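As a warm-up, study this chain.
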Amino acid sequence: MMFGRLTVALSAAALLTLTACGGDPLEEEPSPDSDAGASSENDPTSDGTETSDGTEEKGALTISGQSFTEAVVMAEMYEQVLDGAGYDVTTKLVETRDVYVQQMSDGKVDVVPDYLAGMADYLNTLENGEDAEPITSNDAAASLEALKPLADAAGITMLEPSGATSQNAFFVTQDFAEENSVSTLSDLAEVGPVKLAAAPDCVGRDDCEKGLKEVYGIDITEVVPLGYGSAQTKDAVISGEVEVGQTGTTDGTLEAQELVLLEDDQGIQPAQNLVPAVNTEFLSDNPDVEEVLNELSATLTTEDLGQLNAQVDVERMEASEVAQTYLEDKGLI
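Now compare it with the structure written out below.
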């Protein structure tokens, strides 16, 4: 196989954004080299040549995505299945969604692994302003229907969402949970004032600080901006600096650190199913991409995501190795 080149393009100037998997970092401007390998440069027609394994070569394809563990693993999977389909794949990871959405609209990025509500809420805000009414819910089908017209207008086609989902979540130490008889976010509201370590954009969000206060009635006295699922956030919870931390439902590091997720029993988290986003013009020229990515999406489960993340974050395996082993085990490459 002809595995593509993985380039992590780090960004510079930060802007406030919406969630990718419930915890995007701040939006940033693209790096100077982030438009290389663009779909506008792709030749959508095949010259009929074949690789050494008999796969027809189909031209260049650029994948982008974010640089947190799960997004890196998904980008690796997309790269490997599309490489297996005959594409010459280049992967360029960035810090935040605004960078690759703009590049997809410009035809400089062809394919991105994304999250249903994250993409929908981002495009809704981009189109209708920061005060726009939310268009997503915990209903995946309804959220997809709300997303499609916004994506179409941006020149992006959303493929079939996976059953695998990675939502915003909140955790405490096992000791705290046992001492306070806490297993749900509603239980947490009965505990009293708490501090929350979270992503910088948590304040004011319906799926974070605002929802915890207004829906659950949790008395949050301070949001400490230590990051989404970061080591700093987990250390702050473990040390007792804060009582609650923000992460994702597929975080594979919690059990080893004696941390436990609290159930979102009133459903403030929208549907964050994994979903492939493809530049519409590129997809029109390369329709087989849809079948390849939909097959992967149909195979993935939420449990799979947690295990894949743990292999990278806990077992310290390379994302490329984790992705390859999974795809081979599932017969996808």
